[in-house]
């Protein structure tokens, strides 16, 4: 099936114009001499418009759109809901934790930097390494999405597309770092939302809907046509609830925006991102549902091809150009965030805290390290993108992997008894059990299967309890956690071990929680959280002495 709609010249022209505009925007805020702290967090005082747009754009990424469409195609009408709704609610649920973290570390650059003060080097590096792995995989999945798009719609190949996107991202991000990311994010999200508002209704009618709902109903299985499908919830919804909560807590791209936005605007920023992400991603996920009703088979059997395949089949050229820009913008909005996150980890956590030490860190060296990190990360993502892994699998895997960190990280910011040994031991143990269950390296039969079920049920309680705790406090969190575990027990015991992704994700939560709690509750350790404010902050001497007006415009 030939989907090529643009010739080579048109493709290159669109890419040059898009990245040229991004570069021009970045040049308007560039300073002759950048400082390290602005490169990482833009002065900790970004306004509402820019921060809300950036948070929204960072979550609305091309991989998320593709994965939502894949969910719609595999699980039917409830698939995009299970992908987009839970993802949106997780943004909202992490707001109270973000407010707490920012209150005790108002000038920090990374969560790992705060953990260095809270626990020490091993906990810091554990979180930093997990962030590096996650951001590289995130960047990889976005390059894959861009390569697929360009390979399908243009004469250029997958490799050409991946390289073009990677180079474009690097060129406009490498000089100003996070400041470039947040400003271009705002421009990109405004453009994306405008295109989506036009694109989804247009495709709906051009593809023959609503009549196709009747003519194509036979293409759906009973589970796919059921809005309350248990298969969709157990295979997509439940694992994604666990994955996205972990993604929000463990992801440096989110933490960076948390530390950058003005402290009094955190709530407004998170609520706006919740609404923007949910509406856009659920809407784009319906592409997969439409393809299912139309009986469309993914090109080359690859579900990553669904969105561009549907667009190329039904959209006229003018709208297809808008679609092309939409996907490029969405992948760039997260790709530049990943580069900025990786650079801040290298600058603050690796060099600033562990090599030079905070007092001796040279801001000029930090900037050089940050820029070199972006180059190295881009090269690594290019290599991984050549493998063309499944985007949905990548996202769920990373989120589940971070599940091992959620309770130890959150507890460390609230409970003075948590120790470094409890943090590291609980995370390592959770990962040791997560991996064999997730990749089905052992046969879950007999007592082992029941043990997995019990741990998974406890994981449900942990997730529900943490969500309630953030908004309503410890007592309510305990009650909700216990009730949630009790309610799911009749349905989960004896069955949940059959769902490898879900059970592994839940085990990561429960095991890390049980061990962290058991090792901390009688530790006798106390910690003064005010120390974190004193020992985290600006690396640049001038920034430390003279508060700087943030140059980013706030629409």
UniProtKB/TrEMBL annotation:
Domain of life: Bacteria
GO CC list: plasma membrane
Membrane topology: Multi-pass membrane protein
Keyword entries, A-Z: Membrane, Transmembrane, Transmembrane helix, Transport
Compartments it resides in: Membrane
A Pfam family hit: SSF
Transmembrane segments: 6-26, 38-61, 73-97, 125-152, 158-175, 187-207, 227-249, 270-294, 314-332, 365-385, 391-411, 418-437, 449-472, 479-500, 506-524
The keyword Nucleus is assigned to this record: no
Molecular function via GO: spermidine transmembrane transporter activity
UniProt cross-references to PROSITE patterns, sorted A to Z: NA_SOLUT_SYMP_3 (PS50283)
InterPro entries: Na/Glc_symporter_sf, Na/solute_symporter, Sodium:Solute_Symporter
Major site of localization recorded for this protein: membrane
Keyword Transmembrane in annotation: yes
Family membership: Belongs to the sodium:solute symporter (SSF) (TC 2.A.21) family.
Protein's recorded name: Na+/proline symporter
């Amino acid at each position: 099936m030939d989907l090529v709609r643009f010739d080579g010249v048109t493709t290159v022209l669109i890419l040059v114009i898009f990245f040229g505009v991004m570069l021009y925007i970045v040049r308007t805020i560039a300073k002759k001499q950048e400082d390290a702290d602005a490169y990482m967090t833009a002065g900790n005082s970004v306004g509402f418009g820019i921060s809300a747009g950036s948070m929204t754009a960072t979550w609305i990424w091309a991989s998320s759109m593709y994965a939502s469409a894949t969910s719609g195609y595999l699980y039917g009408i409830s698939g995009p809901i299970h992908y987009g709704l839970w993802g949106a609610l997780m943004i909202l649920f992490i707001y109270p934790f973000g407010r707490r973290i920012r209150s005790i570390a108002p000038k920090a650059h990374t969560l790992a930097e705060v953990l260095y003060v809270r626990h020490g080097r091993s906990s810091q590096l554990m979180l930093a390494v997990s962030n590096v792995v996650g951001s590289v995989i995130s960047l990889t999945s976005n390059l894959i999405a861009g390569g697929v798009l360009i390979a399908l719609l243009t004469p250029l190949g997958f490799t050409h597309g991946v390289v073009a996107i990677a180079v474009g991202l690097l060129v406009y991000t490498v000089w100003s770092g996070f400041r470039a990311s947040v400003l271009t994010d705002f421009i990109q999200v405004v453009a994306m939302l405008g295109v989506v508002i036009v694109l989804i209704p247009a495709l709906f009618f051009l593809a023959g809907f609503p009549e196709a709902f009747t003519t194509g109903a036979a293409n759906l299985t009973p589970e796919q046509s059921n809005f309350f499908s248990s298969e969709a919830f157990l295979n997509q919804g439940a694992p994604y609830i666990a994955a996205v909560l972990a993604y929000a807590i463990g992801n440096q791209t989110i933490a960076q925006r948390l530390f950058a936005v003005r402290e009094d605007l955190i709530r407004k920023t998170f609520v706006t991102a919740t609404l923007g992400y949910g509406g856009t991603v659920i809407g784009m996920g319906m592409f997969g549902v439409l393809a299912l009703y139309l009986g469309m088979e993914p090109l080359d059997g690859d579900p990553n091809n669904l969105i561009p395949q549907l667009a190329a089949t039904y959209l006229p050229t003018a709208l297809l150009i808008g679609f092309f820009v939409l996907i490029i913008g969405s992948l760039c909005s997260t790709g530049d965030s990943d580069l900025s996150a990786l650079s801040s980890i290298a600058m603050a956590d690796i060099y600033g805290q562990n090599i030079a030490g905070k007092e001796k860190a040279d801001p000029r060296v930090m900037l050089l390290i940050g820029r070199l990190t972006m180059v190295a990360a881009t090269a690594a993502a290019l290599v991984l993108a050549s493998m063309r892994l499944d985007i949905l699998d990548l996202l769920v895997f990373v989120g589940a992997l971070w599940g091992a960190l959620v309770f130890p990280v959150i507890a460390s910011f609230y409970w003075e008894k948590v120790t470094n040994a409890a943090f590291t031991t609980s995370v390592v143990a959770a990962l040791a059990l997560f991996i064999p269950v997730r990749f089905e390296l052992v046969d879950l039969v007999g007592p082992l299967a029941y043990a997995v079920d019990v741990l998974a049920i406890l994981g449900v309680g942990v997730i529900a309890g943490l969500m309630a705790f953030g908004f309503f406090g410890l007592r309510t969190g305990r009650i909700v956690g216990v009730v949630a575990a009790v309610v799911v027990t009749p349905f989960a015991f004896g069955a949940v071990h059959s769902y490898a992704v879900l059970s592994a994700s839940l085990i990561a939560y429960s095991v890390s929680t049980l061990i962290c709690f058991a090792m901390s509750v009688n530790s006798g350790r106390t910690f003064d959280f005010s120390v974190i404010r004193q020992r985290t902050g600006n690396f640049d001497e001038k920034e430390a002495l003279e508060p700087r007006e943030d140059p980013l415009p706030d629409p």
